[in-house]
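To: structure desk
From: M.T.
Subject: fold request, one chain
Message: Could you run this one when you get a chance? Sequence is below, nothing fancy, just the single chain.
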Amino acid sequence: KNKLLKFFFNIVFSLFIGLNTKNNNLYYIIILNLAMLFISTSGPLGRYISLPPPITIWFRSLIAILCLISYALLKKTSFKINLNNHGLALFLSGLFISLHWITYFFALQWSNVTVGMLSLFTYPIITVLLEPLFMPTKLKARHIIFGILILIGVFFLIPNFDFNNKATQGLLMGLFSALAYSLRNLILKKHNSMADGSIQMIYQLFIVIILLLPVFFIYSDYQIQSDLPYLLVLGFITTALGHTLFLSSFSHFSISTASIISSIQPLFGIIMGIILLNEIPNFKNVIGGIIILSTVVIESIKSKEKDS
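Reply: Done. Structure tokens follow.
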């Protein structure tokens, strides 16, 4: 496990080395890719941390909210949000992100980094299919085709479809996590003007912390000491730093461009899984991953063309 900690802290150190560049475009490309790298650390961390996922997510949220509040105070960012207009959206987004994180960590524990991350990365297509229910947009024929391709990709991730099989249960948890993440993103997209992205995240994390308080009565017998360093990495690097860097890139890139680049997340996570956990994807996983990620990239490019 020490190897994992050294690896993550070397990544953070790289953020402060080599970013002394006058090329703003290169700087933001590096920032966006570092954000993807930091966020993708959730994959191996989800496998390393032995705590029950609801407990993990509660501590993750607590550490992340403390980091983000400190960041907002340093930046003198206003914490004000009109709760009359956005209170319900904030509550639902906090509910869905808690469901997303918990089910994602169950997916990682029950399967592996490859299946967990690739099943989660069906969320862009799920978002596209659900968007007409939230926005005045129409479903296009290509979206149906992409949805079918994603199902084919998911089929390749299943070792053998058996509800009693842990890997199958992990895959289904990953797909539910993708659905919850899509719903959370669609709600926030509709209420995007409520506040700065980091402030939105603070409110969501606060809701997660409150909603998950009862888990301490359910999971009363757990030991946190051995997992504490990894919880700190998860709260600071993965959640606070990763998401803040990702949001900061929006000032330079379109959301469509950021979405295309974000497709590299599972690749980063799988590579870390190979290096740190010796989890080597099998041939079927590779085929399924190529189908899923290719579909996501093509849809992101098509969306970008429409927006330009």
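Reply (cont.): The first helix runs from residue 2 to 15. Let me know if you need anything else for the meeting.
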